[in-house]
Design a protein that fits this description.
There is one protein chain. The protein is mainly α and 102 residues long. It has a single domain, classed as Orthogonal Bundle (Helix Hairpins). It is 75% helix and 0% strand. It contains three helices and no strands. It is elongated, with a radius of gyration of 17 Å. The model has no long low-confidence stretch (mean pLDDT 85).
Length: 102
């Protein structure tokens, strides 16, 4: 059973929209990271769908790179959460404004 590329791209667009809304509307660091993960999953879905529609493996190679990026983002995010919990006891995004040098 083949799924049309348009259906795959619609699902990817919906995932990306949910991730974008989650990242934009939340004040908690963890929920922002979950939103970014949703957006990376949407990009991976679009890559794989496009690769299957064109009959090549370039999309799967791109997904491996996206998975590496997601792992690095998760590690950095968890390190920031551990630092925030030990330092100030909050995961509010306003606590990270001091990291930017303001």
């Amino acid at each position: 059973m083949n799924v049309p590329l348009s259906h795959v791209l619609v699902v990817a667009a919906l995932l990306f929209a949910v991730g974008g809304l989650c990242a934009a509307c939340r004040r908690n660091v963890l929920m922002i990271l979950v939103g970014v993960e949703f957006m990376l999953t949407a990009a991976s879905t679009a890559f794989v769908g496009g690769a299957l529609a064109h009959g090549n493996l370039d999309g799967q190679a791109a997904v491996i790179l996206v998975m590496g990026l997601a792992a690095a983002e998760a590690a950095l995010g968890l390190a920031l959460l551990v630092h925030a919990r030990r330092g100030g006891g909050t995961t509010d995004i306003d606590g990270y404004r001091r990291l930017s040098g303001e």
